[in-house]
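Structure ticket #2291
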Amino acid sequence: MLHRRHMLALAGSAALAAPGLVNAQKGPIKVRDLYNKNGTMSDLALSLEGERATFEGFMAPPLKADARFFVLTKRPMAVCPFCETSAEWPDDILAIYTKRTVDRIPFNVGIDNRGVLEIGEYKDPDTGFVSMVRLTDATYGR
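Resolution: structure written out below.
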């Protein structure tokens, strides 16, 4: 039979074993938390792969009208940083693939984005754009 203190201990153990869950309780994750200093994926990013997570940042200007994706940056950017090959992928951005056509938000307004974190090279079949990490099935807002 489980008592209240056993349930609390189990909950605490689960939180230690799943750092992404602890971070999610503290609020949105910053884009910079996805990467190690050497550009590789962080332990947090790897622990969240395939999971729904919330990230904060800024919307870079969409590349085309009626797009269903945009780039989330750690700081406001007036131009798109997403036009590179996978070898040149910046370690401070996150591709956001939305459920609907993107409604542009000014590049200097912070937003929260929630979706499923995917890691690994992906080439969009419609646009040819390459991403190394992205949120899919995402929603966003201020």
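Closing remark: Residues 1-25 have pLDDT under 50 and may be disordered.
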